[in-house]
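Fold this sequence, please.
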Amino acid sequence: MITPARRRLDPPPRSRRRGSPLPTVLAALAFLALAGEAAALDWAVGAEGGYFDMSNASQSAKAIFDGSSGGGTVGGFVRLGLGRSFFVAAHGRYFQRTGERVFVASPGSQVYRLGHPLTIRLVPVYGEVGYRVGHSPRWAPYAAVGGGATSYREESNVVGLVETATATKASLHLALGTDFVTGPLRFGVEVGYSLVPNTIGESGVSKVYGEKDVGGATILARLAFGSRTP
């Protein structure tokens, strides 16, 4: 008897499983979305400078600075937009001026200049929240309010004897301004007002005049570089 030849049965070819393209597609879409948001992010970095008037202690300042109550100030800021209208910003500025120690017997009496140099320095650092008015592609008027801390330092030199007094106090800041936007550049002006209570007034001419606040009015010119127009 002839045994029939056995047929070799090969297993069927395995089909290769391909991974689902969904995760790759989702990752690509997420990347594009983040890239789009980054491109649309409204940010700006700038410098500012102008005039600071110590109007909350104007009598003391005018006595020390021989009739003037302020001087030049410089600083910088970083701003980040929150939607179309709101923004947050961080500021830092520097003011320093040298005058003379004075003697005043009482408010309204004559100021006697003593000839000893007296230097006053103010460094306000603060954050603020602001609101832009309108949606012009060129002009961006705004109002802002914020708070922070102001470092105060005075140094006098009396015949080689150097005396210093320092204080750091909480401060409140208000601002109105407008920016002119041309491409990535922004040119602006700002008028501000600050309160820095209970900083001086315990001795010297400020005690005579009863002045305790070293805040005041500021007018600034600003130049910034930003990601896009407001």
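Residues 1-9, 31-39 have pLDDT under 50 and may be disordered. The chain has one domain: 43-125+132-171+182-226.
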